[in-house]
Amino acid sequence: MATKFGFAGGIPERKVRPIWDAIDSRQFKNALKHVTTLLAKHPSSPYAYALKALVLERMGKPDEAFTVALDAKDLLYLNEPLLMDDLTLSTLQIVFQRLDHLDLATACYEHACSKYPGNLELMTGLFNCYVREYSFVKQQQTAIKMYKLAGEERFLLWAVCSIQLQFLEDILLEACVDVKDCPSPDPRSMLLLIAASQQFDLVSGSTIIRYHVIKYTICTCFKFSKLTAALMIYISILERQAKFGDALEILSGKLGSLLMIEVDKLWMQGRLLARAGDYTAAADIFHKILESCPDDWKGFLHYLGCLLEDDSIWCDEAVNDPVHPPKFVNCKVSHLTEEQFDSQISIASACVQKLQADTVNNLIRCPYLATIEIERRKHLRGKGNDDNVMDGIVQYFCRFGHLGCFTFDVEMFVEVLTADKRTELLEILMKTYDTLSAPPTKALGLSISFFKIKQLLLGDISASCASVETIFSRFELIACLVGLSLCFHILNVNVMNTTSSKYVSDLEVSCVQMFEMYCTNLPLSKNLDPQEGMHGEELLSMTCNILVQLFWRTKNFGYLVEAIMVLEFGLAIRRYVSQYKILLLHLYTYCGALPVAHEWYKTLDVKNILMESILHHILPQMLVSPLWTELNNLLKDYLKFMDDHFRESADLTFLAYRHRNYLKVIEFVEFKDRLQHSGQYIVARVESSILQLKQSADNIEEEEVTSFETGIFYHLSINLSGRFNQFIFSQDVLQGLKCGTHFLELSMEVGSKSLTFNEDLLSRPWWTPTSEKNYLLGPFEGISYYPKEILTKDRETSLKRVIEKKSLIPRMIYLSIQSASASIKEHAELNGSATPDVTSELKLLLERYAQFLGFPLSEAIEAVMGFSNEERSGAELA
């Protein structure tokens, strides 16, 4: 090939180096000048054309770049050996990829490989194209050809990894393979059988190549770290096939020595033994893990599950959402006899007591939580003692109550207690707290934890707060800063003048006490970095939560004002507390001050992947607002990040292949797939198109802006009678949206796909646990302000309906314009108009849209026509 002799497309490297230097330094005009000179000397060089296309694309001229790239592609197909090399093809691939025409780059590589099937460099480039397209079957086929050509085992593992990706993506096997002794016709089982079999035949023409996936591939010339990744892939495949015995045999043999971290190896052995049903051996393995890592809470849960022969924890691992893990540990009522259950519980208790004895001077939480978990399991068995559960929680409070995670740790254990026992536990905790002596920082943490556990135990925040007054009595109520006087004045006036029941006064007093506690403890944080979390910063968040709950109860808007003042004060002290900003954002949104809320969102400085998890705080509100410019910027930044990430993910995936890190290959693909099916991402794509239509429309009346969908439905409805004359949309926008057909296809597909939800719902305020729910918009329900478990399936069903409905809008607009244009051309020939087809499709879409709105089409048209007549009558009277 040309590149072997220092040429690219027949051009010496010294002549193209200035072009690349200019591109790298972003001197695109200078690069274009050089490449124009180069083209004059080499007018038939596809490499020169590819360079020009690259420069034009970087200059922001995609149409010209695409035309030049096509010329380069045509020259490549002339089949001249000097004109076809990997450097030319890779340059064209960069251009086509950036222009969203990766299929053309793949076609170029396929053509080159068909002409030069023995060139490993070109085949590697083709494999890269298939990686970028996530075409796992073709990846497998190409990798096998490369293995046959070069005999390098890395290509064999590329094929195995591609097979596993097919299984993970639920793609049917299309490769030309012959599997011996296949026990199942299920295509997914066939995929795993091929990947995991010790030996199988690959049929290619008349040649049969026999090779070993593990015995030969792994035990060869790989670097040590690559061997470990290959072993993990193989174990994973065997586990998916439920061949736990084979996987254990490998771990116990010489290959198991590749896992240098003993705990990781034990974890794999314990999980495989448990899934194989050998709970006794698995419990011994997890006991070893606990001895070496006594703070491994997950390890203890597995240990206890094995003792009680409870496999629910392994079933949950397969179905749990990694972004929204379950709040509580699921477990089954053990099928063991009473004697067996008591015996196993005794073994677990002895293990925990030994762990506590060995870690008496350490801040290790697991052994103390384990004591409460054992009591919880006994309680679920019907043999529990509430006093033992409460005693465990009290002991845990004494040791770890100053930690911010205390309430979260004990939350699931409180669930087994009755209401009376919760009240009793609160009284015990209050007495225990009074006897504790701790340094100021720990005392502050204990106070915060007690307030949180009090809300959890009593459930309803309206319960008596007399016990809280006792806790805060040690802190004097002083106004330490002049700037606090207004806030205290408002709070004290509310305490004095309230006409509500006693609990409102108690809660108001507790708010003042928490605020004072925050101010009193400000000196503890004076030496901290401005961006570091303060001691006691949760106090203001809790104060805000109570004030909002008081507003919900009393409908006294002054409580919201006080909540905003508290948060604004906190941000004046510490400007980087994101939780304060999020609470403020939602409060201002509820108050109707969306521009202010948007400004606070911008101060969060959300970038990169955080957009996917944080954008939900502001996006739903912006979608129904008239702030089109700000909304456009939000959607543009978010979609740009997502599209860039998908391209970068393909690059990282191929890089992982090159470095033989196959676990990362699977991780990158799974993460990309999760983002690509994100409900928020699909909504953003649809809403971005609708926003373009809004911004390109002319003569939109002010009242129509307030309800865009109603306006669309109105204009589309009257269009059927030939009176569409108000909405004029840019044809360029509609053409860019492929006349709405793309989103029409999306609306048909979204119903059969599973959506993912990647939002950080734990960061949301209690009154709006999801973007679809806001308790403040309804009557007081008497619930705790702690968020409830989110019903993902319900959210998914609702969101799918929204996406399907809005995906119809661009196509309906296009069809209405076509129908209106045809109807007003009275002199047009009947056979020159597609009105019947347009009208029938439009009517079909309108019927679907009306169903989403809950109306038959005829009733919807009547309702909107009535609205139109009232609007016209009002205009005439005016």
Automatic annotation (TrEMBL):
Alphabetical UniProt keywords: TPR repeat
Residues in TPR repeats: 263-296
Pfam families reported in the protein's UniProt record: NatB_MDM20 (PF09797), TPR_16 (PF13432)
A single cellular component GO annotation: NatB complex
Designated name of the protein: Phagocyte signaling-impaired protein
Family indicated by similarity: Belongs to the MDM20/NAA25 family.
Domain of life: Eukaryota
InterPro entries: NAA25_NatB_aux_su (IPR019183), TPR-like_helical_dom_sf (IPR011990), TPR_rpt (IPR019734)
